[in-house]
Amino acid sequence: MEYDDSGRKSRSEKKRESTALQDMGEMLARLPGAVVSRLPVSESLRDAVLHWQGLSAHEARRRQMQYIGRLMREVEDADAFAAMVHEAQGNVQVDEKRLQQVEALRASLLQTEQGKGEEALKELCATYPDTDAAWVKKLVLACQQQPDGRGKPFRELFRYLRTLARKEPEDTDSQH
C-alpha cells in the first residue's frame, strides 16, 4: 500500500481499491438473478443488483452500478467475496456448457438421415445406462411428427436429457 507522510492511504490507492470493488460488483451483477439470490450477500446489495438487472436505460444502469460499487465498499472480506463470486461464475459457466451439450444431444437424436439418430441413442444409452430408450424413441418420433419439429415433445425431450446430464455419466474406462 502507498501511504503519504501521515500514514494514510494515498488517493491513488483508494481509487484502485474502489475500482476493484466496483469491478467485483459488476461481476456479481452479471450473474443470473437466481444465483445472486442464493449468495450470502447483504440484502441491500442483493436488491441493488437485482434492480440493476431489471434496468434497460444505459444511464440508469451506470448510476445503479455506481451505487453497487458504493455498497461493495461495505464488504468485510473482499478476498473471500471475490472468491465466492468467481466460484459462482464458474458454476454458471459449467451449467451453460451442460445445457449446450444437452441441446446438441437433442439435435443429434432428432437427425433423420442414415440412422444418425439411432447412433446418438446408442451413445446416450452407453453414457447413461439408466436411460429409458423406449421413452426417448417415443419423444423423438413425436418431435418428428410435429409440423415445425417443436412443441411439447421437443421441450419434454430436452427436460429428460437435462435430467440425465445432471447425473454423473458412467466411466466406461474404469470398469475394465
Q: Would you mind describing this structure in some detail?
A:
It is a single chain. The chain is an all-alpha fold. Helices cover 70% and strands 0% of the residues. The chain is built from eight helices and no strands. It has helices at residues 11-29, 33-38, 43-54, 58-72, 78-109, 116-127, 133-145, 152-166. It is elongated. The model is unreliable at 171-176 (pLDDT under 50).
Task: Give the quaternary arrangement of the chains.
Answer: single chain
In the CATH scheme, the class of the largest domain would be Mainly Alpha
Which descriptor suits the 3D outline? elongated
| Secondary-structure-derived class | mainly alpha
CATH fold type of the largest domain: Diphtheria Toxin Repressor, domain 2
> Overall mean pLDDT score?
82
Radius of gyration: 24 Å
Which regions have little confidence, pLDDT < 50, spanning 5+ residues?
A: 171-176
Strand content: under 5%
Distance between the termini: 57 Å
Mind telling me which CATH architecture of the largest domain this is?
A: Orthogonal Bundle
What about the largest sheet? none
